[in-house]
Specification:
β5 and β6 form a beta hairpin. The protein has a four-stranded antiparallel beta sheet with strand order 2-3-5-6, with helices on one face. A three-stranded antiparallel beta sheet has the order 4-8-7. A three-stranded antiparallel beta sheet has the order 12-14-13. The protein has 18 helices and 14 strands. α2 packs across α3, α7 packs across α9 and α15 runs antiparallel to α16. It is α+β, with helices and mostly antiparallel strands. The protein is 45% helix and 18% strand. It is globular and about 70 Å long.
């Protein structure tokens, strides 16, 4: 499988910023209108009856769901199946009752809020600006501890992302996202600002271009961050002062410069050009092969240090064994290996023999590897892996309560993941998926 950057953000969502950059709000709606390169862009949000508009922590959840959707292979139906505890981890939150409750509220806000974007949604493959109207989460189902709706350790979430959102992601209108840095920031509003700023650095019509400085009228930037200002620049400045200080202290921003007075004030952001930290030993290895430092930082942003360290070691072994022949330069050969890791055998793994083209069919897991797949996993991780594998074949048959029962019985030791998965795969091969589901529900008392 081709290695992709560890985490991404969708450029439509992050560039337009649909999340209010405040920790707490009581707003039921917002609307902004502005001009961009001769286009009039209008964006509005209407909250659900019982909830405010998405804000603060909701940005963590939306970013996590984007990456979870990508990790699950970007299914056409936009469906995601995930344990509540696993989603907490992806958000960078503690696994506690407090955050379980916050997660439920975030999901509800993202499900109920209705967004309308006029003239600002990018259909990048067609190089067109379009209109979009959606709920970020179009459908939401989950299991809870009781009728009150509290998540617990076994709660499962099955949701479907908006078609406009999934189409944008599948089109590749993405940018790298340093989610480790983002989740390490102390306040929700700082994380929202980081996400918006990082997206604003990319040219929306040519995402390969990135800038090191940005300047905005303060009131216009307040609209971009969805901070209510009532036409007073000081309200925006006050809301963003603490996030500015943290982003400078953490080395992401080199400086924030305010100029002018009153409504005419502007804010200038200067980004730290060497923000991406690279392990010195890894940097030296790349230099030995002739790869420029700037390219190394870009690779670290896209792939992560762990993958690059392993690839450097693998590259040396492939070259010394004669499996990989350097035809131009070592730098070019190494870059090719990073971009196409499966073109060459892995250590202690012979190259697969050529095979004849086979008819298209549902992918089946190789039975001898099932026990190995689950051997060293904790019960919680084994349950997550089992559910992900089952969802590949049974996404139209199994529901959130089914996954809740499966997860619970794996955690209690009543289900052996490899055995259940083997039975499930055999049912797929025999065309007996519905019978498998019926037997499973009978066995779990569901």
């Amino acid at each position: 499988m081709k290695i992709q950057p560890r985490h991404h953000d969708d450029l439509n969502l992050s560039r337009l910023n649909l999340i209010v950059a405040l920790d707490q709000v009581d707003m039921q709606e917002w609307s902004v209108t502005y001009e961009s390169r001769g286009r009039i862009v209008r964006i509005s949000c209407e909250a659900g009856v019982k909830y405010a508009v998405p804000h603060g922590l909701d940005s963590d959840v939306s970013a996590a769901l984007i990456n979870l959707y990508i990790e699950e292979g970007m299914p056409d139906d936009g469906r995601i199946t995930v344990a509540a505890t696993a989603l907490l981890h992806l958000c960078g939150w503690h696994k506690s009752g407090k955050y379980m409750g916050l997660l439920r509220d975030c999901l509800e806000r993202l499900h109920q809020a209705n967004y309308t974007v006029s003239g600002g949604w990018r259909d990048h493959p067609k190089q067109r600006w379009t209109h979009a109207k959606f709920h970020f989460i179009e459908s939401l189902n989950f299991t809870t501890l009781d009728g009150v709706g509290l998540f617990d350790e076994r709660s499962m979430i099955v949701l479907r992302l908006a078609e406009d959102v999934t189409a944008s992601i599948r089109s590749g209108y993405l940018k790298p996202l340093d989610s480790e840095f983002m989740t390490s920031l102390s306040r929700p509003r700082t994380r929202v600002l980081y996400r918006v700023l990082d997206a604003a650095r990319f040219d929306p019509e040519n995402p390969d271009r990135q800038v090191d400085t940005l300047t905005f009228p303060v009131l216009a930037w307040g609209d971009q961050c969805k901070i209510p200002s009532e036409g007073q620049a000081w309200r925006v400045i006050r809301a963003l002062t603490s996030p500015h200080q943290e982003l400078i202290k953490r080395g992401y921003l080199a400086d924030v410069i305010l100029s002018g007075r009153g409504k005419d004030q502007t804010v200038r952001y200067e980004f730290a050009r060497d923000f991406t930290k690279v392990d010195p030993a890894l940097m030296r290895k790349f230099r030995e092969y002739g790869v420029a430092d700037g390219m190394v930082r870009k690779l670290v942003r896209e792939h992560g240090e762990s993958f690059l360290t392993e690839t450097i070691t693998r590259f040396a072994a492939l070259v010394s064994s004669g499996v990989l022949v350097v035809r131009k330069t070592k730098a070019a050969a190494l870059m090719h290996l990073i971009a196409h890791p499966d073109d060459y055998p892995y250590p202690n793994k012979p190259a697969p023999p050529p095979t004849k083209a086979a008819p298209t069919m549902q992918p089946l897991l190789a039975e001898p590897s099932l026990e190995e797949d689950f051997a060293d996993l904790t019960p919680e991780r084994a349950a997550d892996r089992l559910i992900r594998r089952l969802d590949l074949h049974y996404r139209k048959l199994l529901r959130a309560p089914d996954y809740d029962q499966i997860r619970h019985r794996v955690l209690t030791g009543d289900i052996i993941p490899a055995e259940l998965l083997r039975t499930a795969v055999s049912a797929v091969a025999a065309g007996k998926q519905e019978q498998f589901v019926a037997n499973l529900r009978q066995a779990t008392g569901h």
